[in-house]
Write a structure and sequence with these properties.
The complex is a heterodimer of chains A (about 280) and B (about 170). With about 280 residues, chain A is of the alpha+beta class. Chain A is about 30% helix and about 30% strand. Chain A is globular, with a radius of gyration of 23 Å. Classes of the chains: A alpha+beta (about 280), B mainly alpha (about 170). At the A-B interface, helix 2, helix 3 and strand 2 of A face helix 3 and helix 4 of B.
Chain lengths: ~280, ~170
């Protein structure tokens, strides 16, 4: 017994070190488990406030770019609106159709923290649960999709970026209705993979890749990117397709969080029938 | 000496935290080279501080970095590790004639060569551990090696520069 205590005393620094590292590893594992709401991250109030202050200083340098982006988006929306007005035959006949037409609500938010160069990238925005944001909502920007809300506090939310090694989104090549899954490769913030496109399909460089209607995060048809190049190895069942992402993650300033009024209904139906929604 | 061992770490904490979070968090060259200058704080902690307390300080400091990177645990684990091996590295690097009793870890008291090897070894170990944890189980092994090497060089350069700019005193 005496020798045991002597031993423990002699190696106390090492044992203490092991205990501390064990705590760290536990935190890492807990934080990385998919969709676990963790408290200590950038949507924490204090951290969010500091990031916002820091961002307030730097955002003046980007004002010109942001203005151009917003003006461009305004023009696009105006065009859409005119088109919509010109459709004379847009008549809503029953409640279900009305609900589907108004299924998505967009909550604008400002990016206060963003990373693109790690293997697992996250974005922090300045809207939280008080603005109606909940974990699991989809996020898009003016050009294309951005990611999915991981956790939120009252005033801030953390988003899993599309540039995240462990996240993928179900997609299709819009021209041919060819289904696949878009997943980031881990290195270049402008390029992602489109996986599981079988070799019997036909498509060409420049085809747009959009979200499919299979998930409840994004409205079907939201742009993800365009096919940059593709190849197929002898004997492989699937193409290897590189997609140039539509969203420029390195200059992301404003995003829209998508609230889907019918998400709960679709999810519960799919759970009943034992489908797992593919996200 | 006593008040020095308390005040200096506090000033160092503020300095390195501000540098890391408000400035170097926004830099990444070629998407490969990052500057984790905050470990300069752990490298520069006075040697008199007990070993176990150093580890606790390193862990707490790593935590304040982690919350801003959304990587809870990663910087903590790497910081605790270098805080643990720091005394052994200092032992291995003992110059001829041993250390003075009132040793201070800086270029002035120990010379550039000693300081450079001390910083290079610890920075490289820290970055290796950090990127290894980040890339854990992913198919990005070779990219991780590139990141480790380039980031180590970047951090080392900034840290050395900082030593000459801020901590050098005319004798």
């Amino acid at each position: 017994m005496h020798r045991l205590f002597h031993f423990l005393y002699q190696y106390k620094a090492f044992l203490f070190f092991l205990i501390l590292e064990a705590i760290c590893v536990w935190l890492i594992i807990r934080n990385n488990s998919y969709q676990s709401a963790s408290y200590f991250n950038t949507s924490n109030y204090v951290v969010g406030e500091i990031l916002e202050t820091s961002n307030n200083v730097t955002e003046y340098f980007n004002l010109k770019d942001v203005n151009t982006q917003l003006a461009g988006e305004n023009a696009r929306l105006k065009r859409l609106l005119t088109k919509e007005y010109q459709k004379k035959d847009f008549i809503i006949s029953n409640k279900s159709e009305f609900l589907k037409a108004n299924q998505y609500n967009y909550i604008p938010a400002k990016v206060v923290n963003n990373s693109t160069s790690r293997f697992t990238n996250y974005i922090t925005i300045d809207k939280g649960s008080l603005d109606g944001i909940k974990p699991g909502m989809g996020v898009i920007a003016q050009d294309g999709i951005v990611g999915k809300v991981k956790s939120c506090t009252e005033n801030f939310s953390t988003i899993i970026s599309l540039l995240h090694e462990k996240w993928s989104v179900s997609a299709k090549i819009s021209d041919g209705e060819i289904d696949g899954i878009v997943k980031w490769q881990g290195m270049d913030p402008a390029i992602a993979d489109l996986q599981y496109v079988g070799r019997h399909h036909h498509f060409k460089i420049g085809d747009s890749v959009v979200t499919s209607g299979y998930n409840t995060l994004f409205p079907p048809g939201a742009l993800i990117g365009r096919i940059q190049d593709f190849k197929i190895d002898q004997g492989k069942p699937f193409y290897k397709i590189n997609v140039k992402l539509a969203t420029d993650f390195t200059t992301l300033k404003y995003v829209y969080v998508i609230e889907n009024y019918l998400k709960a209904e679709k999810d519960s139906l799919e759970n009943q029938s034992n489908y797992s929604s593919d996200e | 000496m006593r008040s020095r061992t308390i005040i200096m770490p506090i000033l160092l904490i503020i300095l390195f935290w501000v540098l890391q979070i408000l400035i170097f968090r926004n830099f990444a060259f070629f998407n490969m080279a990052f500057c984790y200058i905050y470990i300069g704080f752990i490298l520069m902690l006075p040697y008199e501080i007990p070993h176990m307390l150093t580890m606790v300080i390193a862990m707490a400091f790593g935590f304040t970095i982690d919350v801003f990177y959304d990587t809870i645990g990663m910087h903590m684990a790497a910081s605790v590790f270098i805080a643990y091996i720091r005394p052994y590295v200092i032992n291995v690097l003992t110059p001829r004639g041993g250390y003075d009793a009132t040793m201070e870890i800086s270029i002035q008291s120990l010379g550039f060569q000693w300081f450079a090897s001390y910083a290079a070894v610890l920075i490289f170990i820290h970055h290796t551990l950090l990127f290894a944890i980040e890339a854990w189980g992913l198919n990005v092994f070779f990219q991780a090696i590139g990141k480790i090497v380039l980031s180590s060089i970047f951090t080392f350069g900034v840290f050395t520069l900082l030593q000459f700019l801020l901590f050098s005193r005319k004798r």
